[in-house]
Design brief:
about 15% helix; Dihydrofolate Reductase, subunit A
Length: about 140
Amino acid sequence: MKLIVCIDENNGMLFNNRRQSRDRNLVQHIINLVEDKKLWINNYSENLFKYKIDYNLFEKKLNEICEEDYCFIENISPKLLEEQVDELIIFNWNRLYPADMYFDICLEAWQLKSEIEFEGFSHEKITRRIYTRRIRDEKESKENI
């Protein structure tokens, strides 16, 4: 799965059970990124995408998310999904917001594949970084040689 998250400069995701920020250009960027693939969200994020793109709710269907599908989370620990994730797509607000829930995946196991900056509607700059999983262990590395 391709996991999509939005974080601030301190890796914050939520504050007091509310998203830190929202930006309609970022939502459109996600819609363009997903194209004709499946986008999975939970009820919390539904108002961001309603009437803009077809999506699937994953409240109890995490096992149905395929490798080529995208999953956008805001109020769930990314660490809980890490084993299913092949690609991380992190949007950085490039600001500091109050936070009490944080992005909790250690990026040492991930390799930066691409980075772009774009102008948001309410943010001067949003950075998108795409990471791919590094080879998990030496055994897999030797098998691939």
